Sequence to fold (562 residues):
Amino acid sequence: MYCREAALSNDYTEILVDFILTEEDVKGMDYCVFQVDEQFSILYFLPRLPRAISISEYFYNSVPKLYGLMQDESERVSSFNTQSLTNSGILQVQRPPLSLTGKGVIIGFVDTGIRYNLDVFKRADGTSRILSIWDQTIQDGAPPEGFGFGTEYTNEQINEALRSDDPFSIVPSTDEDGHGTSMASAAAGRSTGYGAYFQGAAPDADIVMVKCREGKQYLKDYYMIPEGVPAYSDTDIGIAVKYLDQFARVGQRPVIICIGMGTNWGDHAGNSVLSRYLSRVAEKRNRVVVIPSGNEGNAGHHYSSQFVMSSPAMEESVEVRVGEGEQGFLMELWGTRPNILSLSIRSPGGETIPAVDLRSRETRNYTFVYERTRIAIDHALVEQGSGDELVVMRVTLPTPGVWTFIVTIRGEMQFGYFNMWLPITQFLRSDTYFLRSTPNTTLTEPSMARSAITPSAYNADNNSFYIDSSRGFARDGAIKPDFSAPGVNVPTVLGNKSGSCMSVAITVGAAAQFMQWAVVEGNDVLAQSVEVKTYFVRGAVRDANVVYPNRAWGAYGNIVSS
Fold:
């Protein structure tokens, strides 16, 4: 029931679809369909032939993407400080007369789990503020009603575990990584003496945690994810959001949905199935969806070029420096209609793949005489979600050194424009980057979801922009991020942390405060993401020396103020 076997088995391929499947669509297949909502579905099916994932075999938008955690592990200090909460106005409105602490609001997380036994997640009487934990990784308990896998632990079970001498014998779910616990404590942790000044943004909000399982091994193999690096599929993220969405009660119990993950795979314009689903949820009353901008601004993983088409065919060489020990990566090249792309490749040793004919819909595999590298090239002249041209290069065992990708654009438009993305930092094994990269348009997917809230990150200690924070705008020019929030040395129960996920935690806490005022206290009972975003940007601080919209500081300002 509910696709349990298919969802758990690595033998079943899974794809996302944005339409209702009929019996005729899946005739003759060993399949199962999980209906996410009235538009989006997940199709699990057993391939008839040996599985080969490619956009020539499946539509690009249907192939699940893998997402990494958006915390910068290089930025950790042990002392707590309240500057991020003060700068954003959060501590001020926690106090009377407003007394906004998130009371009556639910904050839902899709992350690595939560260490539920910590005091920051308890009420003053010792009972848990966690309404439920859906652990997608534990299969020996009862899943949530309507969902086919994992185990759901209720508030009653969690409280029983807290009263026990051996709590993990009753509720065995925990957070081995610490990412989800850090996010939850920064957004909603209660002050219990962990450091002289520790305080979460919405300490009275209730919590729901989905411990997201990692993507299936066949997807990790396709995307060449390094061993031991967490990677999560958008199918499981979407199902987790569906679970969190059901906790909302319009006019009574608003839900803030927090996602701490991102990826460089996608059109970077909000057209992916997951992005559109998140927008649909964010547009519902009493829901707020907050997504990190990413930590790719200083990584060198984006190349962009725009130039005047002075002749019918213009050529540009893009150089990628591949570090020692790199085992492989998947790189995307996005053009803009109606221009047409072609591509040739030169290895560090000088061997060349001549201009690739991209007109036919098939995977082209290339090897080198003096290199062990293999390159598979897929192409979509009209990519289903965006309508633009897409070239996907799957590079296996690349020789260290400088690889040159010669991009040719043909067309009658006045300007030529294309973008290329390497994977996010943690999905690469070595220091691999574009020699002439651009920090702009480095927002990770799905942060371009139009109705969701996307903050970039800044350092509240000195009001400087966080150098690793990704920058806008979207590839199609849409204005993202929305504003900037503190994301450096943010206090959590596990120490101060940095990264775009921390700016999300701060924003989530501020949104919980706002929804307490708006919905729980009856000042704007039908509020949702758009209203929250609008109120926040009206309260944002804008620098007279900065032009807005701004790629770094966001569309409307650099400090969230409740």
